[in-house]
Amino acid sequence: MRSVTLSGRGWSARAVQAQTFIERLRGILGAPQGVGVVLVTRSVHSFWQRHPLEVVGLDRGMRVVTTRTLPPKRIVVLPSAAMIVELPHGSPLPDLGDRLEITDA
Fold it and tell me: Is 34 helix (H, G, I), strand (E, B) or coil?
């Protein structure tokens, strides 16, 4: 996994970018504690999670199209998203419409 920083208007978060099938399957469970995961996908699951996770959907232009809390043992499909960011539960979230940037950490 590649360490990155996500940032937008007054918001930032540390994350890792999942690059292999196994990294994408594990999602946030494969990331260091307190760090989010960037996934190039339109759907994520929270199987094996004991706590909810925060989900941020980004379109092709890296604009936030949706944010939601995903309870354990659920699947969410975000048809308008090209990329999804999983964040630990309770993490601050960017505002809808914000454009985010990904830079190497």
Answer: coil
